[in-house]
Write a structure and sequence with these properties.
Rossmann fold; Dihydrodipicolinate Reductase, domain 2; 9-stranded mixed sheet; 15 strands; globular; binds nicotinamide-adenine-dinucleotide
């Protein structure tokens, strides 16, 4: 029947803001532990070492791979611009990878990484952890089962004044190109694909930077998406909102009523067309970033143990990444982008 869980020895690469969360997740996983960790920043290594006596810590992944230790997989939590070389070295060392999003900032590099995983026959999963939050599992179930009848259109609104200079927060979004789209909207567009269970057919998009933005490049994204089955989604996301109090709403209108997600990580409700009020939908409690990441890790390790396809795999992620880049192109050209044509123009036909 069930195969016995193996104790996975993980190589954790990157111990920054998100790496600290992965540390917590792996430390409490029943079937995995951190066998070694990597970060070039000495104080960060010292902080990790103090909490993990006996666990080797290295400044580079090359040193970790050369140390004669044995790993069953790597968890890659570094900024995306180094992922291509890191993934190449890790696959050459025979390690499956769970990598943070975005996989890369250049689409062709993501294609290279996916090809490498496939050539080496090694799992590649990407950190699409928000799919695992109970609110999104339930939203997906209700939308794909057409609980309120035919799904028609939706509006996904995310408003935040994100202080990118705050201590303890990653700093590279302040200077990177398209920080909102590639660091944040990428999660939202992924959730739209996932929860509606439909691929995006076309995108009309504008990205821009408000005059007061602390980001060097665009902190606002507005997109109109047409999904399979003529489902239309109006998306707006900002990191440079004028108010420190965040705002979120994801509403979907269906033939027989509406669903409304009223909080970023929880609070799903619905109303039938003639209901005077929304009815909350019961959801399991979950700590955002922690429980969802733990669930992704569980799935990833389960796939390794049982030789199953990797969850949230590279090809799946590339569809969301390509959507982000199609949105950026739409903004640049002022034209709607048809995804099938975009795939053909960018040698991504293998995703069709
Ligand atoms: N899925 C999620 O929910 C989620 C949440 C936050 C961040 N992220 C993603 O995680 C990644 C990391 O973000 P972060 O917030 O931790 O950034 P960060 O800047 O806080 O931390 C990055 C860490 O990587 C280290 N690093 C840099 N180059 C390295 C290398 N070559 N080898 C090893 N370590 C290296 C840095 O020293 C730093 O400690 C990003 O891609 C980000 O988008 C995902």
């Amino acid at each position: 029947m069930s195969t016995q869980s193996k104790q996975h020895a993980l190589l954790l690469i990157g111990l920054g803001t998100r790496g600290r969360m992965w540390t917590r997740v792996i430390d409490s996983a029943p079937n995995a532990s951190i066998a070694a960790a990597v970060d070039p920043h000495e104080p960060t290594r010292a902080e990790f070492a103090a909490a993990h006596p006996g666990v080797p810590v290295f400044a580079t992944h090359q040193e970790a791979l050369a140390a004669g230790l044995s790993f069953t997989a790597a968890v890659l939590v570094t900024p995306p611009d180094g992922h291509l070389e890191q993934c190449r070295n890790l696959f050459e060392a025979g390690l499956p990878i769970l990598a943070e999003k975005p996989l890369t900032l250049v689409m062709s590099e993501s294609v290279d990484i996916i090809r490498m995983a496939e050539e080496h026959k090694l799992a590649l999963s990407v950190g699409l952890n928000f799919r695992y939050l109970p609110v999104h599992q339930k939203y997906r179930e209700l939308l794909t089962s057409e609980f309120l009848g035919t799904v028609g259109f939706g509006e996904f609104i995310y408003r935040r004044h994100r202080d990118g200079r705050r201590p303890g927060i990653n700093k590279y979004p302040l200077t990177m190109e398209q920080p909102m789209m590639l660091e944040q909207s990428i999660h939202h567009l992924d959730l739209i694909r996932y929860c509606y269970g439909r691929e995006v057919e076309s995108i009309m998009c504008r990205t821009w930077n408000p005059a007061w933005s602390m980001y060097a490049d665009d902190a606002n994204v507005h997109a109109l998406l047409t999904l399979e089955g003529d489902v239309a989604i109006n998306y707006f996301g900002t990191w440079s909102g004028g108010w420190n109090v965040p705002g979120f709403e994801w509403r979907t209108d269906c033939e027989g009523g509406v669903f409304v997600q009223r909080e970023l990580f929880s609070d799903l409700a619905y109303a039938k067309t003639t209901d005077p009020e929304l009815t909350p939908i019961a959801l399991e409690e979950a700590e955002a970033f922690y429980d969802d990441s733990a669930a992704l890790l569980r799935d990833f390790l389960h796939a390794l143990d049982n030789n199953l396809p990797a969850p949230c795999d590279g090809r799946d992620h590339l569809k969301t990444l390509a959507l982000c880049f199609a949105g950026i192109e739409s903004s640049r050209t002022g034209k709607a982008i048809v995804l099938k044509e975009f795939y053909q123009q960018n040698q991504l036909e293998f995703l069709l």
